[in-house]
Design brief:
One of its GO terms (molecular function) is ATP binding. Keywords: ATP-binding, Nucleotide-binding, Transport. Belongs to the ABC transporter superfamily. By secondary structure, the chain is an alpha/beta fold. It is 31% helix and 32% strand. The protein has helices at residues 40-47, 68-74, 90-100, 107-116, 132-143, 162-175, 188-194, 212-216, 233-239, 272-280, and strands spanning 2-12, 15-26, 28-33, 55-60, 63-64, 75-78, 150-154, 180-184, 197-202, 205-211, 223-229, 241-248, 251-257, 266-267, 287-290. Strands 6-7-8-3-9-10 form a six-stranded mixed β-sheet, with helices on both faces. Strands 14-11-13-12-15 form a five-stranded mixed β-sheet. The chain binds adenosine-5'-triphosphate. Residues 12, 15, 17, 34, 36-42 line the site of adenosine-5'-triphosphate. Adenosine-5'-triphosphate binds next to β2 and α1.
């Protein structure tokens, strides 16, 4: 599968929300990252045919996005919010969505769908008894009913506990072998651990598109560990972008971003988050107190 996006624009009235987006996406896990209001959901909703573009062209192996009926057959979408009937069981819910998709829900098909998302042992549970992670895995099973070649997931791990996040990430990685998966998230770690390529959007413009490994190199030679005494902290805050602060007695152990190496600092390998911070030039101080 190859998705080609050419000169895509979306305006709400005079507001230019997507500004001449050009992208090519192939099979594998593709991350979509950007601050609130960057245009990620708008882009995903246009890709799923739920929203019409203002101008530009999108094709899926040559099939134009304007051909909604054909495109909907090849796309599965897990939106940020979705509702299910609380008193239906997991099995009944999936059966119901099979019917909505005009596919006969044989027992073998429904059970195979549940197995894919590791919910076969919970088939009798009512929706209201599911955890957030189980509900989202069921959402994936629903999105996969048509065996889509493209799967688009919006913030799937927000609010999940670490165990469910890991399980969900592994599920997406397994599915990405023969699909294009577009994963939009604010959780940079999810992208670092699952995606091979990445698009960063800010204010409707693409700031980066390419391999995750190349993106991380943006931060090479610009990220440092710097121990300072707590009384010098304010002075340092004015001079550098601080990505994390660990306080221990009268010392602060900082991770900072700087174009040049400050005195007393140690150069460290950048993470995806550090490189993202450099690209965005936004400060998000993370204070962990010890003792
Ligand atoms: N229906 C609408 N009418 C007018 N403006 C809209 C509409 N939907 C979204 N916007 C605006 O478009 C911009 C992009 O919104 P979008 O939801 O695509 O961003 P996002 O990157 O998904 O943000 P978030 O990470 O917060 O979900 C925002 O400025 C938003 O206010």
């Amino acid at each position: 599968m190859k998705i080609c996006i050419k000169n895509l624009n979306k305006k709400y009235g005079k507001k230019h929300v997507l500004d001449n987006i050009n992208l090519e996406l192939e099979n594998g896990m593709h991350g979509l990252l950007g601050p609130n209001g960057a245009g990620k959901t708008t882009l995903m909703r246009i890709l799923t045919t739920l929203l019409t573009k203002t101008s530009g062209e999108i094709t899926y192996n040559g099939i134009n996005v304007d051909n909604k009926k054909a495109v909907r057959k090849i796309i599965g979408y897990l939106p940020q919010e979705f509702s299910l009937y609380p008193n239906m069981s997991v099995y009944e819910t999936l059966e119901y969505f099979y019917l909505l998709s005009d596919i006969k829900p044989t027992k073998a098909k429904v059970l195979s769908s549940l197995r894919k998302v590791h919910l076969d042992s919970c088939k009798k549970l009512k929706i209201k008894a599911l955890s957030g992670g189980m509900k989202r895995r069921l959402g994936i099973a629903i999105a996969l009913i048509n065996n889509p070649e493209v799967l688009i997931v919006d913030e799937p791990t927000a609010g999940l506990d670490p165990e469910e996040r890991i399980r969900f990430r592994n599920l997406l990685s397994d599915l990405s072998k023969d699909k294009v998966i577009i994963l939009s998230t604010h959780i940079v770690e999810d992208i670092a651990l699952t995606c091979s390529s990445l698009t960063v959007i800010k204010e409707g413009n693409i700031k980066y598109n390419g391999k995750v490994s190349d993106f991380i190199r943006i931060g090479k030679g610009k990220v440092f560990k710097l121990p300072v005494s707590i009384d010098k902290l304010n002075e340092i805050k004015d001079r550098y972008v601080i990505v994390s602060t660990v306080l221990d007695e009268d010392m602060a152990y900082l991770k900072i971003i700087s174009d040049t190496k400050p005195e007393g600092a140690e150069t460290v390998n950048p993470t995806l988050e550090d490189s993202y911070m450099i690209l965005m030039q936004e400060v998000d101080v993370n204070v962990i107190e010890i003792g």
